[in-house]
Design goal:
The chain is mostly helical. Among the domains are: 174-330, no CATH class; 365-429, no CATH class; 442-545, no CATH class. Helices cover 53% and strands 10% of the residues. The strands form six sheets. It has a two-stranded antiparallel ribbon with strand order 1-12. Strands 2-10 form a two-stranded antiparallel sheet. The longest helix has 39 residues, at 30-68. The chain is globular. The two termini are 24 Å apart. Mean pLDDT is 86; it is low at 258-262.
Length: 551
């Protein structure tokens, strides 16, 4: 499951992917709505926990194997989340927060205590036996709505200790931050701090420092990552006030192999996107200063990273971490009295890792036809409300997720929802291209012109599409003819690709084969390919795009 804001999902789906959305609003009773929503919230969190446990087991195996490979008292280093924002070799006289002597003494006592803590990884791992017993359950139908038992991560236990040690060492003796781990938004004077911005940032900094004090001096109040995030964000605010421009920690995952010519983004699109980023900046700043808490900070950092990318004219962001967690390597020695690893611990983790990965795949199976996202919606509904009477009360009827009912086919699923559920309203959100066509009163000739890809005034060639000659999303009667034309067009590119392969490494040939593959269903009246529109700017969107979709 993925959770995206409606606005982002709609833009990506209806504009980028050029797909229409057909909305069916269900008349769920008011008193049942909160419970229905909480069912989906719980299912999402449960799935995240199963996947996080699997990731923890993989991390444990990598860490314990590395630890076991070291000789006694041999030095090594290992990446720890959050330490990438610091220069671990360079000391600094500047300490970001003024502490009293009593507070410094308390931190020193905590540091000494943390340094003496030993970790018996074998004992810790044995505590997970009950967790792994869940993989022996034969009936796994309801495990996707059943929370997994607690898993004690060996690596996270060690990482948590090292993070807390580092924070106290940093605040007592002082170390430098790593400048390259922060973004300075200084490409335009619009980003410079105004006096009211400085006032807001000083208030934010005070709040961050108070939170950090709470973490440091109230036992078990925060984990190590929370302390590091507060420290990093405090530094970003301090640097902003010092430089006069907004500074944020990097938390985006960047593509190291990004090349501008791979995208071939038109210059006018890049320029317009930069102008849009200035409007996003003003909106994001109002939201950040008008809100509080971790979510406000997270959204602010995410928006600023996007703006920085647009200002640099490089669309190289792959994804975002939920909070600043750039890893950095920290040296330590394998001291047997502190880090005790038995060979059988490694073997047990290796065996359980394989079993657990297979187990999670069985809990969340996927098949593009027989068990896809459409059919899964009905499966979850039937798990949330096991009695037919419950489903009738909430939805107005029942729909089976079984394969022989064909509820996994999207257009048939829509018909079933309309016939069996309590539908109170229907609305269609047209794709970008269809919205543009609808907004213009085009003659039949001009409409046909817009269907021809090479001369369409709305479409721009881009690296996400294969070669095709005709759009088929706005016609049904002519779709087989258009599809046959696209197949011939694809065959031509495939043939040409045979001769160009030595120079383009088979790019044109592969493109032609894909074109034939996506054109073939059109001969049988099915339209899969819609055409991508990645270069659409705010100015290109029709007025109908901004119409309110729902209350």
């Amino acid at each position: 499951m993925i959770r995206d804001p409606w606005e982002e999902f709609r833009f990506h789906y209806t504009v980028w992917e050029n797909r229409s959305i057909h909305l069916l609003e269900l008349g769920i009773p008011t008193e049942a709505k909160d419970k229905f929503k909480s069912h989906w919230d719980e299912a999402y969190l449960i799935q995240r926990k199963w996947i996080e446990n699997l990731e923890d087991i993989k991390s444990d195996l990598a860490f314990i194997s590395h630890l076991h490979s070291l000789a006694e008292n041999e030095s090594t280093d290992y990446p720890i989340s959050g330490l990438g924002y610091f220069n671990l070799e360079e000391k600094s006289e500047h300490v970001p927060i003024d502490f009293t002597d009593n507070e410094l003494q308390k931190m020193q006592e905590d540091l000494t205590r943390l340094q003496k803590i030993s970790i018996d990884f074998y004992k810790l791992y044995k505590q997970n036996e009950n967790h792994f017993k869940s993989t022996e359950v034969s009936d796994r139908r309801d495990l996707n709505v059943t929370p997994p038992t607690k898993y004690n991560s060996l690596f996270k236990t060690w990482e948590e200790k090292e993070q807390k040690k580092f924070v106290r060492e940093f605040l007592i003796s002082g170390k430098s931050f790593e400048p390259s781990a922060f973004i300075i938004l200084n490409q335009n004077e619009v980003f410079s701090l105004q006096e009211n911005d400085k006032t807001h940032l000083i208030s934010v900094r005070t709040n961050l420092q108070n939170q950090l004090r709470t973490c440091l001096f109230i036992e078990n109040k925060c984990n190590g990552m929370e302390e590091i995030v507060l420290l990093v964000r405090n530094h970003a605010i301090e640097e902003s006030l010092k430089l006069g421009y907004f500074v944020i920690p990097k938390k985006a995952v960047y593509n190291p192999f990004y090349f501008e010519d791979a995208e071939e983004i038109p210059d006018h699109v890049l320029e317009e996107k930069r102008n849009e980023s200035l409007r996003l900046f003003e909106h994001a700043k109002r939201q950040f200063f008008g809100s509080s808490g971790d979510f406000a900070f997270s959204d602010w950092e995410k928006d600023m990273a996007k703006i920085d990318s647009l200002q640099r004219k490089k669309f190289d962001i792959v994804s975002f971490e939920p909070y600043p967690s750039l890893p950095g390597k920290r040296k330590f020695e394998r001291n047997p009295s502190f880090y005790f690893v038995k060979p059988e611990t490694i073997e047990m983790i290796r065996q359980q890792n394989g079993k657990y990965e297979q187990f999670v795949q069985q809990i969340y199976p996927y098949h593009i036809i027989l068990q896809n996202c459409t059919g899964e919606i009905f499966r979850y509904h039937n798990q949330f409300y096991k009695e037919a009477s419950e489903q009738k009360y909430v939805f107005g009827g029942t729909i089976s997720e079984k394969t022989n009912t064909f509820s996994f086919v999207p257009f048939l699923a829509a018909i079933k929802v309309r016939n069996h559920f309590r539908v109170v309203q229907e609305k269609e959100i047209l794709s970008f291209r269809l919205q543009k066509l609808k907004s213009k009163s085009l003659s039949p000739i001009m409409r046909t012109k817009e269907d021809i890809v090479p001369i369409s005034s709305y479409y721009q060639k881009n690296p996400y599409d294969q070669e095709f000659f005709l759009f088929t999303d706005d016609t049904v009667a002519l779709r087989p003819v258009y599809g046959l034309t696209n197949i011939i067009w694809g065959l031509g590119h495939t043939t040409a690709g045979i001769f160009t392969s030595p120079w383009d490494r088979g790019k044109k040939f592969t493109n032609g084969v894909k074109s034939i593959f996506f054109s073939f269903p059109e001969v049988f009246f099915f339209n899969i390919r819609k055409g991508y529109f990645p270069y659409v700017t705010e100015k290109d969107l029709p007025e109908s795009y901004y119409e309110k979709v729902y209350e």
